[in-house]
Amino acid sequence: MADGPMVVLSDESQRTSGEDARSMNLEAGRAVAETIRTTLGPRGMDKMLVDQGGNVVVTNDGVTLLEEMDVDHPAADMVVDVATTQEEEVGDGTTSAVILAGALLGNAEELLEQDIHPTSIVAGYRHAAETVTEVFEDIATEVDPDDTEVLEQVAGTAMTGKGAETAKDLLSSMVVSAVRAAVREDGTVDQDAVDVRQFYGASIDDSEFVDGILFDIEPVHQNMSRDLDDANVLVYEGDIEVSETEVGAEASVGDMGDLQGFVEREQSELADKVDAIVEAGADVVLADGGIDEYAAELLVENGITAFRRVDDDKRQRVAAATGAERVGDLKLLTADHLGHAGSVSERVIRDVTVRRQADHESTVVFGDLPEEGVGTILLRGGTEHVLDEVERAVVDSIGVVSAAIEDGYVLPGGGAPEIEASLALREEADSVEGREQLAVEAFAEAFEDGPRTLAENAGHDAIDALVDMTARHDAGDVNVGIDADTGELVEMFEDGVVEPLRVKTTAVNSAVDASTMILRIDDVISAGDLSVGGEDEDEGGAGGPPGGMGGMGGGMGGMM
């Protein structure tokens, strides 16, 4: 050991150090951004993802793409986290955030080739991010929660390019109505109070906002009422069946009298449970477990409508909306545990004829609820794939409208904030000392990548667009952006292209966090049994050091 270096890693461990590790990590991060780059903007292209089971997803939603893709590279996964964070924080801007992260990594690689130390690049990027945030806050426009027009523009901007354009005005109006109804007293939005449901078989134009809760589950008995007014609602965390000890017990029956007594004891147990429900005054029961046929008959006789095996989300949603307290023991049930709904009714969503036999799909609607802000966006569409994409667009819109209401500030879209920030960064770079100045300038250049991609995806000349936008912003037109349809420069607020301030600030912070973390890595050590590409070493070379792009490229190639 005195004649050579001490070995502390096992023979199976693999290690990549220094420039090699950094280069492979930067390449992996940029590859993620390049994969989804063409989806950006109202004219972005869609991607088709096919998994091993043959299931198909067609979308241009950034976070959906990255979640569905087989990304195995650890550095690439950090960039995927950018989209995940963006989605969780605000619901939109995932593609823009990832493209920015990719551009920051690409520019950082050029700086590294000029012998700029990673810590200098990281410091410059951090400084630039703070400057960008200040710029965004300076140019942001205040929006009031009652400003329906601007909020609908925010919703519509988030939907643009996601398959919902044909009914954008209708869907935007529905989203704003739903979100505004879910605003709490402290000004925050309870997004869980807004449910999104889909039924295919009609036009998107037939979508609507329903003031209440919908769930597609049939009453346990065909003779139970489908139309009730002023209903008391019981949310029961159990079943209305014979107890397990009774069902599992072995009974020795000597004659028919013994058999009859055994059956009567079971029926008596069920009758006691139903009596407890009746005495409490319940009109509707949502049970976690099953409901015995005999118990169902008793409930019908008492005019009670019951639903069995209702999942936890639905039970919780109904309990919160009706004011019911979830009960686990019917022996403790009182009228105080019950919630209230002004109406509980069945609504036929669509008629279906299968082999000349009429059938229908219906849903149960809990309406006229005491808790305000409970609503459901009911989406219609021709096919399941279309509806899935429209639902993703609507969910994104709910997030951005909520952010606009909670924060009270919006920005112009169309690349306007990015160009304004890029100009500010170039000016700021002159006041930064040392090599960090180069990092700030690199950040400014990376910020232009979004508007450039927006123009390219719309089929316009990206260089001309950037030059013209820069000139207009340099002249003081801070809200001017590119119209993706015409390629012309227009005032974004007048054109109705508006985004919440939080979309941009979160994207910047997430992209900077991911890129700087990757930049600071100079050593990658993997365990011997870690196969980054999910293949044997002799089958794809992916069993090598994490950073070998074989694993990631193979995964994406199989999905795209």
From TrEMBL:
PROSITE patterns per UniProt: TCP1_1, TCP1_2, TCP1_3
Record lineage: Archaea, Methanobacteriati, Methanobacteriota, Stenosarchaea group, Halobacteria
Stated family: Belongs to the TCP-1 chaperonin family.
Positions of the UniProt region annotated as Disordered: 1-23, 530-560
Compositionally skewed regions (Basic and acidic residues) per UniProt: 12-22
The keyword Cell inner membrane belongs to this UniProt entry's keyword annotation: no
Pfam families registered for this protein in UniProt: Cpn60_TCP1
Official protein name in the record: Thermosome subunit
Biased composition (Gly residues): 541-560
Keywords from the UniProt entry: ATP-binding, Chaperone, Nucleotide-binding
GO function term, MF aspect, one: ATP binding
InterPro entries hit by this protein: Chaperone_TCP-1, Chaperonin_TCP-1_CS, Cpn60/GroEL/TCP-1, GroEL-like_apical_dom_sf, GROEL-like_equatorial_sf, TCP-1-like_intermed_sf, TCP-1_chaperonin, thermosome_alpha
Species whose genome carries this gene: Halosimplex pelagicum
